[in-house]
């Protein structure tokens, strides 16, 4: 086991070049809304309060929905080119303010400033992508079997959308949904993660500046009333679609609440990603892939490797190489330039990581790197060997920095074990055998596969899961489809 790492919990917050991007109000109808009832938002690295935002309830959410519904009447009539131009301007404004937005993101979420800068660029890329999709919302003409009729289809926006966001990508999860919604001609009411409202509010400030019309983008912040806000979004008949990223348990609840009004649904839910290293793999590349996939965002992404399966012939070598790299990580405040990995989001997240580690160790696993809670929300990036199927990590998403290494013998066995889960978001494997690359890619039950790559997310590619990992696809040429209806027009009497 490595020695306990030192870490920094108190640093000076860099000054924003434009302090007006840090807003402490909700945003409805292009107006900043305050309320006497507020909740505090903490820096997860220090536990210190960053600021306070309104604790909005169901009634205020209903008002925001009314506003979005009103704005839909005009926004849905704009041309694709008009929506393109506005999304492109919003993209430009985000990139022009990348450093300030990254600073706000690190402050509220904890990820390192380097990762936050990356998330701002990744997040902005969805606006650039969907700006370009807004002008390509093509319909079809269908060869008609009837001589006096012509068949065609057009795509139309579904209506106002309720968007419910997680804490782990405060910017990119918002833009991935809002970019598609606005490009399609929908308006939105967004509920950001209660831990991270400031990134969403900074984006609203930029939306207003670039001329996104009033009511098209609305943000309600909530903590104590969060269940009521979610329920209002899901049951209000004026909301025509719900897009949610978060846990499978909450996704199931929101889906059942939405059924009464038959809303269109996008659900990007939990994963339990297998990461498979075959004995013909380039081991150094596999180690790099595992580091990137497992420890991105300190292990707090839905696509993080959760079960690392290594073929028995290369198990020891892979474990040694991975542990050596992980031991070099530096845990600390995201603003400290030496930090490679920031804190977890809160104490509940730390408790879960500790529970998974204790469970594994009590059943015979061995810690070969890290392994300690460091105080506050910090936990050492950890590598554990000797994992077995009866351990919690085999079934549950850790959402934290533990790389648990399981051993396997054959391709057939590992496909079966990898698929033995209700989840199917991402899966990864490393092999240099081209036949195996095809076979395994096709047989893994997941929405996304990294074949010799540990990072797969891109605005160009469809993001989403199968099984209990969700419904729908975000980003890519398919992303806009989740926000439109296809209308068939039969032109008769010709
Ligand atoms: C997620 O964790 O939900 C998203 C990760 C990504 O976009 O790569």
TrEMBL record:
SUPFAM superfamilies to which the protein is assigned, alphabetical: ALDH-like
Residues the record marks as active site: 268
UniProt-listed GO biological process terms: cellular response to oxidative stress; gamma-aminobutyrate shunt; gamma-aminobutyric acid catabolic process
Pfam families assigned to the protein according to its UniProt record, in alphabetical order: Aldedh
Domain spans labelled Aldehyde dehydrogenase: 32-489
GO molecular function, a single term: succinate-semialdehyde dehydrogenase (NAD+) activity
Catalytic activity: succinate semialdehyde + NAD(+) + H2O = succinate + NADH + 2 H(+); succinate semialdehyde + NADP(+) + H2O = succinate + NADPH + 2 H(+)
EC identifiers of the protein: 1.2.1.16
Pathway it works in: Amino-acid degradation; 4-aminobutanoate degradation
Assigned keywords, A-Z: Oxidoreductase
Stored CDD domains: ALDH_F5_SSADH_GabD
InterPro entries given in the database record: Ald_DH/histidinol_DH, Ald_DH_C, Ald_DH_CS_GLU, Ald_DH_N, Aldehyde_DH_dom, Aldehyde_DH_Superfamily, Succ_semiAld_DH
Gene Ontology cellular component annotations, sorted alphabetically: cytoplasm
NCBIfam families: SSADH
Family: Belongs to the aldehyde dehydrogenase family.
Protein name: Succinate-semialdehyde dehydrogenase
Species of the source: Absidia repens
């Amino acid at each position: 086991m490595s020695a306990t790492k030192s870490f920094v919990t108190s640093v000076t917050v860099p000054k924003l070049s434009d302090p007006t991007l840090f807003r402490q109000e909700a945003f409805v109808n292009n107006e900043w809304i305050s309320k006497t009832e507020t909740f505090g938002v903490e820096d997860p690295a220090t536990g210190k309060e960053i600021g306070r935002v309104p604790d909005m309830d169901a009634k205020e959410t209903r008002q925001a929905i009314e506003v979005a519904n009103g704005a839909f009447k005009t926004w849905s009539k704009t041309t694709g080119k008009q929506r393109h131009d506005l999304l492109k301007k919003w993209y430009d404004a985000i990139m022009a303010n990348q450093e300030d937005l990254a600073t706000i993101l690190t402050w509220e979420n904890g990820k390192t400033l380097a990762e936050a800068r990356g998330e701002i660029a990744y997040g902005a890329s969805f606006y650039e992508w969907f700006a370009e999709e807004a002008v390509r919302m093509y319909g079809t003409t269908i060869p008609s079997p009837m001589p006096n009729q012509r068949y065609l289809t057009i795509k139309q926006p579904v209506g106002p959308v309720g968007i419910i966001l997680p804490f782990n990508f405060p910017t990119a999860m918002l833009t991935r949904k809002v970019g598609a919604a606005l490009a399609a001609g929908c308006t939105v009411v967004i509920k950001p993660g209660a831990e991270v409202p400031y990134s969403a509010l900074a984006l609203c400030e930029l939306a207003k500046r670039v001329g996104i019309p009033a009511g098209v983008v609305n943000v309600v912040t909530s903590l104590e009333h969060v269940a009521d806000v979610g329920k209002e979004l899901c049951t209000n008949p004026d909301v025509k679609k719900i897009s949610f990223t978060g846990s499978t348990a909450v996704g199931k609840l929101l889906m059942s609440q939405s059924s009464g009004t038959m809303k269109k649904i996008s659900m990007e839910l939990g994963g339990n990603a297998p990461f498979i290293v075959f004995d013909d793999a380039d081991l150094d590349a596999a180690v790099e892939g595992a580091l990137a996939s497992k420890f991105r965002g300190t292990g707090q992404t839905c696509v993080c490797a959760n079960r690392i399966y290594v073929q028995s012939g290369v198990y020891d070598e892979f474990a040694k190489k991975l542990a050596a790299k992980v031991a070099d990580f530096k845990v600390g405040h995201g603003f400290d330039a030496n930090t490679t990995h920031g804190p977890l989001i809160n104490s509940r997240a730390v408790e879960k990581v500790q529970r998974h580690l204790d469970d594994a160790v009590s059943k015979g696993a061995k810690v070969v790197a890290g392994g300690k809670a460091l105080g506050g929300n910090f936990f050492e990036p950890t590598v554990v060997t000797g994992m077995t199927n009866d351990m919690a990590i085999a079934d549950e998403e850790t959402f934290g920095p533990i790389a648990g290494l399981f051993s396997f013998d054959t391709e057939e066995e590992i496909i079966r074990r990898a698929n033995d889960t209700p989840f199917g978001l991402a899966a990864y494997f490393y092999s240099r055998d081209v036949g195996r690359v095809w076979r395994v890619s096709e047989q893994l039950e997941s929405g996304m596969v990294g074949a010799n790559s540990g990072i797969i997310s891109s605005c160009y590619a469809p993001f989403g899961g199968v099984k209990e990992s969700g419904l729908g696809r975000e980003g890519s040429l398919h992303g806009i489809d989740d926000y439109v209806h296809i209308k068939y027009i039969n032109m008769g009497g010709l």
